[in-house]
Write a structure and sequence with these properties.
Helix 2 runs antiparallel to helix 3. By secondary structure, the protein is mostly helical. The protein contains three helices and no strands.
Length: 78
């Protein structure tokens, strides 16, 4: 399922993105998709590392459900 999203960018950022998309030979839409996907993957990996660090540090009974949710999210996104 695809969703539409309107994003307002400062002129400087828009021109830089347009130039980057042109250099890569892709559409602005594809550039934005790739950038968001890259950021999302990085975020999940960082959260997963933090969750493992907390688990490795010792008992985290209060946060265990959150940590498992982060792990599940990371595994489902791969």
């Amino acid at each position: 399922m695809d969703h539409a999203l309107t994003v307002r960018l400062p002129d400087r950022v828009y021109r830089a993105a347009r130039n980057m998309a042109t250099r890569k030979g892709i559409s602005m839409n594809r550039l934005v998709q790739e950038a968001i996907a890259e950021k999302a993957v990085k975020s999940v990996k960082e959260r997963l590392k933090e969750a493992y660090d907390v688990l490795a540090a010792g008992p985290a009974e209060d946060d265990i459900e959150d940590l498992f949710a982060i792990q599940a999210e990371a595994l489902l996104d791969e």
